[in-house]
Amino acid sequence: MSLVGLKNKANDYPSKLSGGEQQRIAIARALVNQPLLLIADEPTGNLDPVISEEIMELFNHINHMGTTIIMVTHNKELVNSMHKRVVSIEDGLIVNDVKKGGYDIHV
């Protein structure tokens, strides 16, 4: 809970947490066993831009701690701001794989 900045919310019910707080709690639960891989499906889909950026900074921190993160998103701005590996898949086939890429599909 400390890693995601919500140690003070440990005893709160989910209904009392904001969407961003709920998302960070979900990330904390996923990290309990210190996984080598974290898969995130649209982790910022229902969040405002400021909270989305905070979640991405958290993922970056988690990645620097040694956890590989595979994330699916349609948020072009977030993808482009991260400068991480981007693999684009269309109809089940990899159509683009750029080591420090952005959200730019060339088919």
UniProtKB/TrEMBL annotation:
<dbReference type="Pfam" id="PF00005">
    <property type="entry name" value="ABC_tran"/>
</dbReference>
<dbReference type="GO" id="GO:0005886">
    <property type="term" value="C:plasma membrane"/>
</dbReference>
<keyword id="KW-0378">Hydrolase</keyword>
<keyword id="KW-0547">Nucleotide-binding</keyword>
<protein>
    <submittedName>
        <fullName>Cell division ATP-binding protein FtsE</fullName>
        <ecNumber>3.6.3.-</ecNumber>
    </submittedName>
</protein>
<dbReference type="InterPro" id="IPR015854">
    <property type="entry name" value="ABC_transpr_LolD-like"/>
</dbReference>
<dbReference type="InterPro" id="IPR027417">
    <property type="entry name" value="P-loop_NTPase"/>
</dbReference>
<keyword id="KW-0067">ATP-binding</keyword>
<dbReference type="GO" id="GO:0022857">
    <property type="term" value="F:transmembrane transporter activity"/>
</dbReference>
<dbReference type="GO" id="GO:0005524">
    <property type="term" value="F:ATP binding"/>
</dbReference>
<keyword id="KW-0131">Cell cycle</keyword>
<dbReference type="InterPro" id="IPR003439">
    <property type="entry name" value="ABC_transporter-like_ATP-bd"/>
</dbReference>
<feature type="domain" description="ABC transporter">
    <location>
        <begin position="5"/>
        <end position="44"/>
    </location>
</feature>
<dbReference type="GO" id="GO:0016887">
    <property type="term" value="F:ATP hydrolysis activity"/>
</dbReference>
<keyword id="KW-0132">Cell division</keyword>
<dbReference type="GO" id="GO:0051301">
    <property type="term" value="P:cell division"/>
</dbReference>
